[in-house]
UniProtKB/TrEMBL annotation:
Residue ranges of domain Aldehyde dehydrogenase in the record: 23-483
Protein name: Aldehyde dehydrogenase
InterPro entries linked: Ald_DH/histidinol_DH, Ald_DH_C, Ald_DH_CS_CYS, Ald_DH_CS_GLU, Ald_DH_N, Aldehyde_DH_dom
Signal sequence coordinates: none
Keywords, in A-Z order: NAD, Oxidoreductase
Entry annotation: catalytic residues: E258
Length: 489
């Protein structure tokens, strides 16, 4: 009965400045993983809505109501949006926490201010991108300038719902594109709210549209649409491969992918502070319930300090025991949903079957009668070819392996089909540089973990994807170079 009553809350899509239902009448339920209750039914955008949104976005682009506004004017609007995000900080943090289970304090302290900062940073950057004059011929002037692409679609995951959206939406809008955003089906609320705030800030109708729905329906419709110029994605490698297929089968839209990782964290015996290294190692894997693409899920430790590091980690893990996401003392919360919880528990069972030694955690926890919580979990004696050593688990599960030489550590670190990030702990500057150069990843953090800042690019190689988010390099994805050759007569 309670569920039936809750199902009356309907959230609509945001297309061309208006809230609307799906023509098909289809909705999907968004469930709070900390209560197992339905938060709302949300319109599932199908082919009709995607078509309508693409047309609106294209029309807005061609009319130039955003792309051809002066940079100063666009900057002012995006700065206003950044302010509005901070004004709605409590609400946006709560929406993300309720839908995907992260501690609300975490969202409030990091995700929402981070999102606001992305918008202000790209707002401030957009009028500082100069073109070039190329030295071609004496009787010609050749300029190389950047122009927007047109219509950009962003498909984003649920682990940092608003922040991941902002990584794509802020630079895409700053560059002058029209944008379609598909949030993950687990966490569409903050994105829908962002669309309302964008209108309030002065982004013209049609320029920013939010299309909630599942990957199979809405995501696929976006991937296959022939009039989208560029599709940017953060999510699993499996889905990334599908998006490239869709692009190949439709209009060869540009595709940029930020997929998974199995990022190694290398602790050498000459590390200057093992306590700090252990604290960071714990944070890197247990923060956000381990639902982080660049989580350092493989810990490689040089033999002489192996036992000491494992011991410290076991002690530190307890600090990351999950709690109610709304409790301000919780450092970790619920897993995103029952499916992901079961998936992570299956991986833990498989790791045990494959002979890894469970030294900490490994159990599901029940909080307020709900079982979507997992203890911080550590395995040692992890075989190099086991699932635990190779596959992304996307949960609070750490695989620890010893090594005996720098060469072996590098080989183990690079023995992965992923190439997103890595960390290195060493007191030797030479070693840090040597190892950093040898690691096949997009970001190396030295004597820290998960170095991330809007000023530096983020992204990976191998099957972690390609293209970079953040920094001015992000504009490479959202603009195209135009050469104009003027012959002088
Ligand atoms: P995860 O397994 O972590 O949920 P996914 O890659 O499935 O990662 O999801 C990331 C985003 O990709 C979500 O917004 C999801 O809806 C979307 N997605 C999933 N499958 C598809 C698909 N076949 N086509 C397009 N988008 C998809």
């Amino acid at each position: 009965k309670k569920r039936a009553a809750q199902q009356r809350f309907i959230c609509q899509a945001q297309i061309e400045g208006k809230a609307c239902d799906a023509k098909s009448g289809q909705t999907f339920a968004v469930i709070n993983p900390a209560t197992d209750q339905i938060l709302a039914q949300v319109a599932e955008c199908g082919d009709d809505e995607v078509e309508r949104a693409v047309r609106a976005a294209r029309r807005a682009y061609q009319r130039g109501i955003w792309a051809r506004q002066s940079p100063t004017a666009r900057k002012a609007v995006l700065l206003r949006l950044s302010e509005l995000i901070m004004q709605h900080r409590d609400e946006l943090a709560l929406l993300d926490s309720l839908s995907m289970g992260k501690p609300v304090v975490e969202a409030w302290q990091l995700d929402i201010p981070g999102t606001a900062h992305f918008f202000s940073w790209y707002a401030e950057s957009l009028d500082k991108i100069y073109g070039q004059v190329a030295p071609t011929a004496a009787d010609a002037v050749a300029t190389v300038t950047r122009s927007p692409l047109g219509v950009v679609a962003a498909i984003v995951p649920w682990n940092f719902p608003l922040e991941m959206a902002a990584w794509k939406v802020a630079p895409a809008l700053a560059a002058g594109n029209s944008v379609l955003l598909k949030p993950a089906e687990q966490s569409p609320f903050s994105a829908l709210r962002l669309a309302e705030l964008a209108l309030e800030a002065g982004i013209p109708e049609g320029v920013f549209n939010v299309l909630p729905g599942t990957g199979a329906v809405t995501g696929q419709a976006l991937g296959r649409h022939p009039d989208i110029d560029c599709l940017v994605f953060t999510g699993s490698t499996r889905t990334g491969k599908r998006l490239m297929e869709y692009a190949g089968q439709s209009n060869l839209k540009q595709v940029w992918l930020e997929c998974g990782g199995k990022s190694p964290n290398l602790i050498f015996a000459d590390c200057h502070d093992l306590g700090l290294a252990a604290e960071n190692a714990a944070r890197a894997i247990f923060y956000n319930q381990g639902e982080v693409c660049s989580a350092n899920s493989r810990l490689l430790v040089e033999r002489p300090v192996y036992e000491a590091v494992v011991e410290r980690l076991i002690a530190l893990a307890a600090e990351w025991t999950p709690g109610d996401p709304l409790d301000p003392n919780s450092r970790a919360g619920a897993m995103v949903d029952a499916r992901q919880t079961a998936k992570v528990m299956d991986s833990i069972a498989e790791a045990r079957r494959q002979g890894a030694r469970l030294v900490c955690g490994g159990e599901r926890l029940t909080i307020n009668g709900v079982t979507n919580y997992i203890q911080p979990t550590i395995f040692t004696d992890v075989a190099p070819d086991s699932l635990l050593a190779r596959e992304e688990i996307f949960g609070p599960v750490l695989a620890v392996q010893p090594f005996d030489s720098e060469q072996q550590a590098i080989a183990m670190a690079n023995d992965s089909h992923y190439g997103l990030a890595a960390s290195v702990w060493s007191g030797s500057l030479n070693r840090a540089h040597r190892v950093a150069q040898a690691l096949e990843v997009g970001t190396v953090s030295v004597n820290t973990v998960d170095a991330l800042d809007i000023c530096v690019p983020f992204g990976g190689g191998k099957q972690s994807g390609f293209g970079r988010d953040l920094s001015l390099h992000s504009f490479d994805k959202y603009t195209q170079l135009k050469t104009t050759w003027i012959q002088l007569h």
